[in-house]
Design brief:
Blueprint: H1 3-12, H2 27-38, H3 45-54, E1 66-67, H4 78-96, E2 100-105, H5 132-147, E3 153-157, H6 162-171, E4 182-186, E5 189-191, E6 193-194, E7 201-203, E8 206-207, E9 209-211, H7 216-223, H8 226-233, E10 237-242, H9 253-261, E11 266-272, E12 281-286, E13 289-293, H10 300-304, E14 316-318, E15 322-325, H11 326-332, E16 343-347, E17 351-352, E18 358-359, E19 366-370, E20 383-387, H12 406-423, E21 439-442, H13 450-456, E22 468-471
Parallel strand pairs: 2-3, 2-10, 3-4, 11-20, 21-22
Antiparallel strand pairs: 1-12, 5-9, 6-19, 7-8, 10-15, 11-14, 11-15, 12-13, 12-14, 16-19, 17-18
The structure holds uridine 5'-triphosphate.
Length: 472
Amino acid sequence: MTIGELQTILSDCGQQHVLRFYDDLSEASREKLLSQLSSVDWARLPELVEAYVKAEPRVELPASLQPAPSLPAQPENEERRELYAAAARHGRELLSQGKVAGFTVAGGQGTRLGYPGPKGTFPISPIRRKPLFQWFAESIARACEKYDSEIPWYIMTSPMNDSETREFFRKHAYFGLSEGQVFFLTQGTMPAIGLDGRLLLAAPDSLALSPDGHGGSLLAMRQSGALADMARRGIEYISYWQVDNPLVCVLDPLFLGLHSRLQAEMSCRGLVKTGPFEKLGNFCLIDDKMAIVEYSDMPEELAQATRPNGDLRFRVGSPAIHILDRPFVERLTAEGRLRLPFHRAVKKVPFVNANGDLVEPEEPNAVKLETFIFDALPLAANVLILEAARGEQFGPVKNPKGVDSVDSCRRLLVERAANWLEAAGVKVPRQADGSPDCTVELSPRTYLDPEDVRQQAAQLAPPKPGSREYYE
Ligand code: UTP
């Protein structure tokens, strides 16, 4: 796009001010700004400003809203036991046949955690302080060994953390994976929109941009060539997880097998909520289509409604663990674009004012727009929800302290390791309240699942009360 073309477009939508400093910029800075401006969807911007900035979109929940059906974590009758056993066998075959890829969304800014650097580089494990990326890399390496297959791993970054993420992997020799096994893709960005409807500049030569949400992963898969790369490798299933959940079972044979057997296009792990207001999206049916209604959009009466047996009516929430059929993502993005609905967040966004001074606002001054992966659910022909046992699959690292924090995640990792050891017959000392009276860490490079622990149990020394034991 030439500067002349841009000027016309910008004045048509009242955004000429973004070129305010253009004449004084160096050639390189001009190029940078023009390239950013060329990637904005100007045709859609006025509509977004009207819908999300000037107005606050109201979520109208239809009368047809119903809780979505889900499969239990443990099979509860003989028929289900057979289904789950056959599905787990099938899932292992899919892994051995090289039909599954891992996919991690790691493009977020991790503002709540406040850690300087990509969240995936955060040292999470309870004893060795392995970074999140290492934790997943070792899990994948063990899966490759176990299923005798080279399983590729796709990692979505954003322009804000891409080079640091790649450098981290290079510096650590891909944590034992081969370089060709790890594919980085970068998601798109969205400009922050000031509350007056005008785009903000972060610098004279740059818009205030932020990653476009984990929903951006779908289009990023196509635009980066990741989808084509998957097709070339014979990948049919994409195992999707978030970079801040080290408890996730990265390549789960049962989940994969059920997804494939029941011919779902997109599947979700579900968690039975701890209470009506737990901050998880609610799995719902809207006109028979699967959808997630965010906890903040759920009216109180509905959130609290119960069934005759006392269970919550909307009892299952989303920990953001999915399987996507590759052909499903191909179909959604076939035209090189995908219009998922936006979710708005009003945030404090630093900006340069008309004098060129950087302003750090004290109050929220801008709307950030993101798309979410779960908005692809209504577009899937068939969706499966498989509940997961709490503590087995979910322990997100969102905050430095308190709920969903570094501490709570480490505690969950220790508790799960203790449970796996005990299930394998290794005695674990416990406190009066039942929590482990020791800190134990199982290396995911060796112990991917309870079965791995069982196989090695004879050689594992039981932890002593109050001790710290790392099982290599
Ligand atoms: P969150 O919504 O928790 O955001 O992302 P965040 O950026 O990690 O943290 P806060 O909200 O700024 O504190 C959930 C997952 O989705 C990824 C994150 O990296 C994380 O794995 N994500 C989020 C992206 O990959 N891209 C995005 O644009 C947003």
